Amino acid sequence: MASRRQIVGLERSPQQGTPSSMYIIVVGCGSIGSRMIELAIADRHEVVLIEERADRAEAAARRYDARVLHANIAHGDILKEAGGDKADALIATTSDDSANLMTMFLGRQAGIRSLVTLVSQTDHVPLFERLGVQILTDPDVIVARHLYGFVRQPAIVEFVTLPGGGDLFEIVVAPGSPLVGKSLAEVGEAKLLPESTLILTVERGELLLPGRGATTLQAADHLRIYSQSTLKSDQLRVFTG
C-alpha cells in the first residue's frame, strides 16, 4: 500500500443491515478485533475497520464484507474518513494502551455514543475511566477464569466473568439438590443462596421461566445465575446436591 490512508477493498459495498443495525468502527484487527468484526457482521451491522499494519488490513479486506482503512487513527482525519460523525460505536482492540486511549479521546471528541476499549495494563485504567468509556481489562485472565470455572465445577454449563465484576453462569439443578420443589420465594426465605446471587431465568425443556418468587424449581432445570462474587465449591452444592 502506497498510502497509510488508502482504503482497502473500497469497491466492496458494506453489508446492508436491518433498520436497527449499527454503524461500528473497530480499531485493530488482532484476534479480539477480528472476532468482534465477525460477530458484528453476522448481526448485520455496518462495520469499518481501521488497521495500522498493512498485512492485517489486506487480509481483513479479503476476508470481511467491510470497509477497511490502512491507517493510524491518530494521523489526520482518519476517524472522520471512517465515518465517525455517524458512528454508533467505536471499539479499540489493540494491545497498545496509548493507541486505545487516543482512540477513545478522539471518539469522545467526535461525540460517538458508545466507546469501548481493551486495557492491557490495569494501572492505566484510571486514565480511561476519566473519559467515561467502557473498559475490558486483562482479556487473557477472563478467558482463564472462564476455563477454570468449568474445571472447578463440571456441573456449570456456561461461565462468564463480566468486565464490570461478577459472574454470569448456567448450572443444572441435580435431583438431590435442596432447591428441588421449592419456589424461588422459599429459596430466598430459607437463605439457601448467598445474598449476592440472583437467579435470572429458569429453563425447563422448551420453557423459559422468569426468576420470580412464584417459580418452583425442578430437577434438571437450567438456571441462569448472576453472582457478584465467584461462588466456592461448597456454595455450589446447593445446586448439585
From TrEMBL:
Extract the SUPFAM superfamilies matched here.
NAD(P)-binding Rossmann-fold domains, TrkA C-terminal domain-like
Instruction: Name the encoding gene, please.
Output: trkA
Q: Signal peptide span per the entry?
A: none
What GO biological process terms does the UniProt entry carry, in alphabetical order?
potassium ion transport
Q: PANTHER family, from UniProt?
A: POTASSIUM CHANNEL PROTEIN 2-RELATED-RELATED, TRK SYSTEM POTASSIUM UPTAKE PROTEIN TRKA
Provide the GO MF annotations for this entry: monoatomic cation transmembrane transporter activity
What name has this protein been given in UniProt?
Trk system potassium uptake protein TrkA
Q: Could you tell me the keywords of this UniProt record?
A: Ion transport, Transport
Residue span, RCK N-terminal domain? 21-143
Cite the RCK C-terminal domain residue spans from the record.
Answer: 154-241
